[in-house]
Amino acid sequence: MTLLTSNEINVESQAIQAKKAAKILSALTTEEKNEALTILADKLEAEYKTILKANELDLANGREQNFEEAFMDRLSLTKERIYDFSKGLREVVELEDPTGDVLSNWTLENGLKVEQVRVPLGVIGMIYEARPNVTVDATGLALKSGNAIVLKGGSSAINTNKVIVDVIHQGLEETKIPKDAVQFIASTDRAATKQLFTLKEHIDVLIPRGGGALINAVVNNATVPVLETGVGNCHIYIDRAADVNKALSILINAKTDRPAVCNAAETVIVHEDWFESNVAALLSTLNDHGVSIRGDKRVLDEIPGATLAEEKDWAEEFLGLTIAMKIVKNIDEAIEHIDQYGTKHSEAIITEDKVAASTFMKHVDAAALYHNASTRFTDGGALGFGAEIGISTQKLHARGPMGLPALTTCKYLMTGDGHIR
Amino acid sequence: MTLLTSNEINVESQAIQAKKAAKILSALTTEEKNEALTILADKLEAEYKTILKANELDLANGREQNFEEAFMDRLSLTKERIYDFSKGLREVVELEDPTGDVLSNWTLENGLKVEQVRVPLGVIGMIYEARPNVTVDATGLALKSGNAIVLKGGSSAINTNKVIVDVIHQGLEETKIPKDAVQFIASTDRAATKQLFTLKEHIDVLIPRGGGALINAVVNNATVPVLETGVGNCHIYIDRAADVNKALSILINAKTDRPAVCNAAETVIVHEDWFESNVAALLSTLNDHGVSIRGDKRVLDEIPGATLAEEKDWAEEFLGLTIAMKIVKNIDEAIEHIDQYGTKHSEAIITEDKVAASTFMKHVDAAALYHNASTRFTDGGALGFGAEIGISTQKLHARGPMGLPALTTCKYLMTGDGHIR
Q1: Which residue among A2, A357, A391, B1 sits deepest, i.e. has the most Cβ atoms within 10 Å of its Cβ?
Q2: pLDDT value for B274
């Protein structure tokens, strides 16, 4: 495949094409969009060998550059993984189409009729890292909600992504959705990504998905509005009145079930009374699951195997089998710590004390708060939203797991008969 | 009054104080907040003379700097205007408190209970120009929705605003709302405004209110999320099938009722057939109301008194008795023009043709679309929303007139009994 440099590529003209296509797409019926997604799913399955061949190129490049194993695993496709992509598209077909919904309507005393309807945002700019599944997932959610999409994936997966988009384009030719509704920026040049940041006239929202560095680069430099997703420094607070079994099983689930995801726990905050009574069980359970501890001084006194937590550890997404541990005198101290270091993603309290639980739910500022449950549930699928485009950690527009409605806005439609003020 | 320079002022520490106060404020009941707003209204009325005295200083400065009359009028207060402020606060007392509303709730198959509740955003940063009423209006809406506010008003009104906030602070001492929930940046230094742009840790949203230059400066430089408000380049499209009386009365209302506001019309687009039949009536009506025309070549052929519109006139907010006029062959050309030059605020079609109306409503991308009614209705009060914090011209979070719900976000609260994934 030939890649383009940022001089050869014209991101703005791609965005303009996407905007034109979005106009046509927004007028299609739910049935027409569903039919198109089904054709895309079929096409991806039919062309899985072509995709695997392109993936081989990326894997070979990755091996040459000595990428680490977990990274190579995320990059690597199999027939089954490609079939999972198409299964994902078929699931999006089943989701309710939010566009066209009448959100509210009323008639003013003067007879002017007011109707608020849900409409697509227009053009979504998706900036993401290695996982090629985002190419398919984001395209499916965008098209179903009537939006065009401009895709800028990570360099390490560029051959795979390019071929996936080629297959999508072939598929779209058999549908009512214009090919231009899916734009792929075929460049590994960072300058191409930067061009996306300021195309406010043509792109309605940027959604970065990936690590903190990527997300911060977009937030700090984009004038296009951004939907921030995913950085999760999640805490489990084990209160004085926590049930031991619930506390330990939730802690282990939140830390070890999938340590690399954003809803995994990174810090456990323990009430000193509970800690004194249960330190042995806590330690042996963490040991059994291979979790190493970075603790405050109090922790080190009781758990000699722990290492001393530095300031930066309280803010760290370890994304592996390490946990920070802090001992507190009371729930207020726990909430203050979360206020200071949390990323407003998911926070849990384990307690049998209803007053403590309600204080936590009321005063902690985050998208998702849990009482006696694991932070791992913050996920569109697990909470019953269907597929998600990401998990918002911001407060405006959408908070928490974002399904199709997060990709829409509204219009007020007023009908009069010569009404003036 | 002594003003501070940007070296003496610490905007960040004010924002931190606001954030702390927001925690306390967010836990107050609706009754406690209403009681506080009533006390503030009483206090403003009791202290109207103090406020007028401060206003005299700003007016004297304004005269010295030869500000134009309309500007001086916006700046100048009277007893009646101050009583209008307090009346506004009493109206906010009557509005429903959106916080605490349960937006949705469900129970997963595994028994985990999910509840989505509406909560305050936290801290609102308000950046605005001359009108001192914004100081009171924005404070009322912020406090009612449980948010702290950081106010940065225009330099020309700084003495007035400072004294208004002093009065508010005196009033707050008699209430449960901490004084620190209302912060005033007592500096005319632009560097102080710029400090607000990046205080992402402490300020949840910035709302600029004023002219296009102010709004663009905030949008282009802030890393704090922005709610864009108010720049309105609104169009009236007079279709081939427009009723003459409706067309002329709506056009005059939209252009001349209050030409300086954002929902006033700036361009009229006229179908060529209607234009040919009605040019005389159109011209005489505009003349009668003192409206001057900047038209395309076609207009100039028929209306010799018009001046030729330059490219920039199509994008101009005249905010006075000037209108741009373009003749089109069909509705598609009208929609294309609006796409190119509109600001996605308010757009109207005048027609008796239902198909044309529905095409316009479907394909024009704006917050508010009108069929046979004036764009002047895009206003929280006129549409029945109650007081508004501004009119959003963006698509994310809130679109169109923004009432109290636009100042809130949500939290997902999950209650389990040891639930793990």
Answers
A1: A391
A2: 98
